[in-house]
Write a structure and sequence with these properties.
The complex is a heterotrimer.
Chain A (H helix, E strand, L loop, with lengths): L5 H7 L4 E6 L8 H10 L5 E4 L11 H10 L4 E6 L5 H13 L4 E5 L20 H14 L15 E6 L6 H14 L3 E6 L3 H13 L7 E6 L5 H10 L7 H9 L3 H18 L3 E6 L8 H7 L14
Parallel strand pairs in A: 1-2, 1-8, 2-3, 3-4, 4-5, 5-6, 6-7, 7-8
Helix pairs in contact in A: 4-5, 8-9, 10-11
Chain B lengths: L1 E5 L2 H8 L4 E7 L2 H4 L5 H18 L4 E7 L5 H4 L3 H4 L4 E4 L3 H10 L4 E4 L1 E11 L2 E6 L15 H4 L26 H11 L4 H4 L27 H7 L4
Parallel strand pairs in B: 2-3, 2-4, 4-5
Antiparallel strand pairs in B: 1-6, 6-7
Chain C lengths: L2 E6 L3 H10 L8 E6 L7 H9 L4 E6 L10 H19 L6 E5 L5 H18 L4 H5 L1
Helix pairs in contact in C: 1-4
Chain lengths: ~300, ~230, ~130
């Protein structure tokens, strides 16, 4: 089967993939986005455009994906269930595919209480697993969830997220299995600092043979300071940051350099973990560091399996 | 039962501006149990309003009455004499009761003295928790007797999101994660297999999304003929 | 000046009688309402007292832990707290209402309580309801 996207091409060919995150701006000016895209071009196989992450209003993920396409880099459009019902989800998926956005990441979305619109009414018509079911049925059966035949099915490469550090821990891998069964082609994980727990998670993944059914991209997030590490530990939901990481950041002469070093070491380690098929770099508000991280981790140059069409 | 919470007195006073003959209506059902709008609360609120009126020279006349169940027309009809001469009803019944009063006394201005919160149960004295989302399509048999619609902050149907940690929901450390509770319950029931079964997109039509819901129990509905013979009230 | 005191008959009332017997100078503006326990004091009683023109109201019960009915004085304190917020919203200073705890042999404490309420009224002025009503 012909790959729907460059990311799919890289993963299906068995190469170690790299994706990176770009946070759309809090405003209507796309220039920041273009700058990031140009700067990072060639350093990842596809770029995630977050969808009003932490429920803070930002330029929409589909529009940001389109800007990326215009810059010749491949987007992964994130699509949270928080803000759209199944009508909007299906419609946005058709629109995305029509314009050349092929990678779609299905996720529940952070609760609005974290954002700058706490009084919003959330949607959650679907959860992320149901979102996968719906989009897969559009792609594979050419049908809307309501049963109508589409005159042309969307071309999609479907992703989902998993947090190995959420609880109950024993349910994390079964939940991943549910996502795979629902249609996930690739998985991006929450950022990993607690390697021990992640390895236990991966043991369970391999035990169930899930690593042969889905491509897992392990998440990394470079830390800027000990304060940032503490924030991750205490304020970001579903995060596990071991004390030794915090201490290492605290004792560093140059915390920023240490953060990058730590991130690169983490990637080196992840490359050795069986069943991990790539990394997902979330350099939140630090996107300019992505090329350095990718180079240092020995993951540059990137293979080009497909040029984004636009 | 229905859980409600009394509105702050200053908000109540604001709503009553422009009126002067007030009937405070309490309800002995749910709102009495959750200490929001029973006889006691109606008495305290009425007295507070009288005090306010006297302090500000407003010359309000405030009376109070507490009915058995304000959501049933049969009980509400009984307050004809109480409502006589009033120009506003301050309802301490839930939103349902307030509307039934309005329906029976269409010319009467009805203002809500409580915020109707949820369908829940007393957890302990003074603490009430929402338990049921009223979705019209119950899945408790699949979720270990714990409602995901009401007790998961995102009403997820397929397990906890990534924000579940140490049994708590991501929205705040005092809120238990609904899916953590479901997981524990199913584990105890030895039915964790249910956690692995994907629940497809839910039919929300029986929920609020289908518009105001009407429930008809055919065998209880009287025909026009029966109504005539039995003299049933409309 | 009119001060209404809802007093527990096991503690505050005994202390009041004792204070009288010992010749302590209790301001005459205080009218006491004997209660079997301050737990019997209702928010409505307090509100009614203010509506009838009281300049201040106090509730005086046993020391916490000493209630004959175990938690009556604790319940009373909760109600007083709640009623203070009602008073404020209705338009009256919440300082006009207070809850005290004392033992039956603390007649000096009873004198202090009444004087405390008198000084509060002196500071706040009379209950404005008197002016409105007449």
């Amino acid at each position: 089967m012909k790959a729907a996207s460059n990311l799919q091409g890289v993963l299906d060919s068995g190469q170690f993939a790299v994706t990176a995150e770009i946070g759309p701006p809090k405003g209507a000016n796309p220039e920041v986005l273009r700058k990031h895209a140009r700067n990072m071009k060639g350093y990842a196989d596809a770029f995630n455009l977050t969808d009003n992450q932490t429920a803070v209003v930002r330029l929409s993920s589909w529009a940001a994906s389109l800007v990326c396409l215009q810059e010749g880099v491949e987007p992964v459009m994130q699509m949270a269930c928080r803000d759209r019902n199944r009508i909007a989800i299906q419609s946005d998926a058709l629109g995305a595919s029509a314009l050349g956005v092929r990678n779609v990441l299905c996720l529940t979305g952070d609760h609005q209480i974290f954002g700058n619109q706490k009084e919003a009414k959330n949607v959650y018509d679907l959860d992320s697993i149901q979102e996968l079911m719906v989009l897969r049925s559009m792609r594979d059966e050419g049908k809307t969830w309501g049963g109508d035949t589409l005159d042309s099915a969307p071309q999609l490469y479907l992703g989902a997220v998993e947090n190995p550090f959420g609880d109950p821990f024993e349910f994390r891998v079964p939940r991943l299995a549910k996502k795979v069964a629902a249609g996930a082609d690739f998985i991006q994980t929450q950022s990993i600092y607690d390697m021990e727990r992640f390895e236990t998670f991966m043991d369970q993944v391999r035990e169930r043979g899930l690593d042969r059914k889905v491509h897992i991209l392990a998440g990394v997030l470079p830390l800027k300071s000990a304060k940032a590490a503490l924030y991750m530990k205490n304020k970001v939901s579903g995060m596990s940051v071991p004390d030794e990481i915090i201490d290492r950041m605290k004792n560093a002469a140059d915390p920023k350099a240490e953060g990058i070093k730590l991130c690169v070491e983490t990637i080196e380690h992840l490359k050795q973990v069986k069943g991990v098929h790539g990394v997902h770099i979330m350099a939140v508000a630090w996107e300019e560091k992505v090329p350095e991280i990718v180079r240092e981790a020995g993951l540059h140059p990137r293979p080009v399996m497909m040029e984004p069409e636009h | 039962m229905i859980i409600a919470e009394q509105k702050p007195l200053n908000e109540v006073i604001e709503m009553l501006e422009g009126h002067s003959r007030v009937l405070v209506v309490g309800c002995r059902s749910c709102v009495a149990v959750c200490l929001a709008g029973g006889e006691k609360e109606a008495g305290i609120l009425a007295e507070s309003l009288r005090l306010h009126s006297d302090l500000k020279g407003k010359e309000w006349e405030v009376e109070e009455v507490t009915l058995e169940r304000v959501c049933e027309k049969e009980w509400v009809r009984g307050m004809d004499s109480d409502i006589e001469g009033k120009d506003v009803v301050l309802s301490l019944a839930c939103g349902v009761g307030a509307q039934v009063i309005h329906e029976l006394y269409p010319g009467m201005f009805v203002v809500p003295g409580v915020n109707t919160i949820s369908m829940g149960a007393p957890e302990e004295q003074g603490i009430y928790l929402e338990k049921c989302g009223g979705c019209g399509d119950c899945v408790l048999h699949l979720t270990g007797g714990v409602c995901p619609v009401a007790r998961c902050s995102k009403s997820l149907m397929n397990g906890p999101c990534g924000g579940s940690q140490n049994g708590k929901c991501e929205i705040d450390p005092d809120t238990p994660c609904g899916w953590d509770q479901i997981y524990r319950s199913l584990k105890e029931l030895n039915r964790l297999d249910l956690m692995e079964t994907a629940i497809p997109p839910k039919n929300w039509r029986p929920s609020r999304s289908g518009g105001p819901r009407k429930t008809v129990r055919k065998e209880a509905v009287q025909t026009d003929e029966e109504k005539k013979i039995r003299g049933a009230s409309p | 000046m009119r001060i209404i005191g809802f007093v527990c008959r096991d503690s505050a009332l005994v202390a009041a009688e004792q204070a009288g017997a010992m010749g302590r100078s209790i301001p005459s503006s205080a009218t006491l309402v004997e209660m079997p326990c301050t737990g019997r004091v209702d928010a409505v009683h307090i509100l009614r007292a203010f509506r009838e023109g009281a300049d201040a109201v106090f509730v005086a019960g046993c020391l916490e832990g000493n209630c004959r009915y175990q938690y009556g004085n604790i319940e009373a304190r909760k109600r007083v707290t709640l009623t203070k917020s009602q008073l404020q919203a209705a338009g009256l200073e919440p300082e006009r209402l207070e809850m005290f705890n004392l033992a039956s042999n603390q007649e000096w404490r009873f004198e202090e309580i009444v004087k405390e309420m008198v000084s509060r009224v002196e500071k706040l002025g009379p209950n404005p309801i008197g002016k409105v009503k007449t």
